[in-house]
Design brief:
The chain is α/β, with parallel strands linked by helices and 192 residues long. 32% of the residues lie in helices and 27% in strands.
Length: 192
């Protein structure tokens, strides 16, 4: 069971934030397992701050994605690592008690954690960011800092078992570092 990776979603999860890691883990021989509050289809969105005068994020409808498993049915030890996608979903799913426990497991066990954009709201809510350095979309800086973390405005931040980026624009900078942690963890699990 050392080939499965959790991808956490909810309605209004960001399309590129979700599909990029979903496809990258497959390229490395992992099996992405999408999880949401329920095992059902979720609507994704596209987020962009347009260059034509907008100073806030504009949202467009994206694809849909099927969640393979509900949070309550996850056995965290069966998965190599976890990824927290961005978009608006984290704001709505971060209070799920099963998701909070799953999140805490990956930090306590020092397993690979990937996070982008608003995804920070989940580990922040779970109490896992204290004294940790993270990249996130600047508007989530407060969420991170009020929970004891340090905001770093860079495309890739590696802090122990956690790798983070600000937005989908940073995937090419931080994703390889998270993938490398997954590969190392898979090897460790296979050696047991």
């Amino acid at each position: 069971m050392s080939d499965k990776v959790l991808i956490i979603v909810g309605d209004a999860t960001e399309t590129v934030d979700t599909l990029y890691p979903y496809l990258r883990v497959q390229e490395e021989g992992f099996v992405p397992v999408v999880s949401g509050p329920e095992a059902r289809r979720y609507h994704m969105v596209l987020h962009e701050v347009p260059a034509d005068g907008w100073d806030i994020t504009r949202e467009f409808e994206g694809y849909t994605i099927q969640a393979d498993i509900a949070f309550r049915d996850i056995e965290p030890a069966e998965y190599v690592g976890i990824f927290f996608s961005g978009g608006r979903a984290p704001e709505y799913i971060r209070d799920d008690p099963d998701l909070i426990e799953i999140t805490r497991y990956y930090f306590k066990q020092n397993k690979p954690v990937g996070c982008v954009c608003h995804g920070v709201e989940i580990p922040a809510r779970a109490g896992c960011v204290k004294d940790r350095r993270m990249a996130t979309v600047p508007k989530c800086q407060f969420d991170l800092e009020v929970c004891g973390g340090t905001f770093v405005n860079e495309p890739c931040v590696v802090d122990g078992n956690m790798v983070s980026g600000r937005t989908w624009h940073d995937h090419g900078h931080y994703m390889k570092h998270w993938i490398n942690l997954l590969i190392a963890e898979r090897e460790r699990m296979l050696a047991q």
